[in-house]
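Researcher: Quick one. four chains, 488 residues in total.
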Amino acid sequence: MTINRSPSLTEQVKAHIKERIVGGEFTEGRIPSETVLASALGVSRTTVRDALSRLENEGAVVRRQGAGTFVNESILQIRSRLEAIWSYEDVLQAHGYTPAVRVLAVEEEAAAEWLAADLFLTAGEPIVVIEKLFLEDRRPVVLTYNRISAGIVPGPVGETDAATPIYEYLEAAGGRHLSYYLSEIVPVVLQDDLAAKLDVVEGTPAISFREVGFDDDNRPLVQATSYFRDDLLRFRLMRRKDGS
Amino acid sequence: MTINRSPSLTEQVKAHIKERIVGGEFTEGRIPSETVLASALGVSRTTVRDALSRLENEGAVVRRQGAGTFVNESILQIRSRLEAIWSYEDVLQAHGYTPAVRVLAVEEEAAAEWLAADLFLTAGEPIVVIEKLFLEDRRPVVLTYNRISAGIVPGPVGETDAATPIYEYLEAAGGRHLSYYLSEIVPVVLQDDLAAKLDVVEGTPAISFREVGFDDDNRPLVQATSYFRDDLLRFRLMRRKDGS
DNA sequence: CAGTGGTCTAGACCACTTT
DNA sequence: AAGTGGTCTAGACCACTGA
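Model:
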């Protein structure tokens, strides 16, 4: 491991430790002490602590005062961690599928009441709706509707634009950085249209996300509604006592 | 604000800032700079940074290099943040309900195959199942099944034991500290028994959690399955780019 | 009691945003 | 150019765990 700046030392140390973790180097789950790591890597203990804190936040390790720092085996298995999902293609890939995207529709509409409220617009303003289907090989897994104010992406939205992940597109076309989603988890029963598009029998229960994506300044950028095939993709989550 | 140890300085600084946030003191959303806070509170900048980091992890504030630290208004509204939920009574209270718990059953059973796998037992070992219903005034909102190895709580489980939050009970009766849950989010359609207990018409879609609670040593303590009335309690979540 | 992580300080420099 | 958060150091002491 060669140490230089950018990415930061802390980030490099974090990556280094993570590598050793996934490499299975710490067989009993115990990670070397902070002092040992610091002197081995030639950095201060503070830097090592910073790196370990970030790994702890991700759930990769657990620290116990007086005892040591340990690998969190159970969390490493999870491939679809709800908090960490940003690209459905990545998620499908992590599940061993060969993902594909199909753009079903790109339409301009007038913002409905509820949508206007979500996006801080006034009802009737023009918005763009992108309807996409994510597939593993041939079977549909996720159906998404992204709704963006036409003011954010002035040009017409092409098919290839629509096919790129929404946060990339917002960055490229709108120059806006998608920072976080506020998501609502809603149970639904798939009927008619939705059942047909996801290729399931009518009446199949499914999870639906209704979420709003914000930029760094807490301004809403996009409203998204998604539907998932529970038999092909099931979400997991770590809930910790501290609430992080 | 008087500063003394225990809780730690950092924790006190964090609490202090949080108070001022919820008190609406930072009207434009801007929090004083780290240097200003440090000298005003008579602590080092490191301590202030530590406190702010924790607030950032909770989603309460956002930091932007070169610009400042800002209150995250949107997250403060959320009353049922999925990651932070540990007691359904607290959640119901936060929604303005008057919560109540009703213990429907406490039974001893032999562990089924799937449960044994979840709890690292062998099939057939004795387990205790606690069935509880959480109500707001008179309407049922949450139905939970907690399954614990009988070896963890050797004594018989009384009605009042069962009524206490599961993590408190495990602490008191079993001397085990519940550290985190690994949860699976499953869509279901409420039928028969479940529909009756939650007082909804058959065929109502609902969210269900299937989760396993672990202690600090990554040992499974309890398996829980829960069902929610979507019309009375809907879960929300912040999904950030970094993945924490 | 030795070793671990937790807290805290004071100070330096850097990267970035804003004016 | 001034001010902000981001990184990093070296060192001290404390709280806790485990042998």
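The mean pLDDT of chain B is 90.
Researcher: Thanks, that's what I needed.
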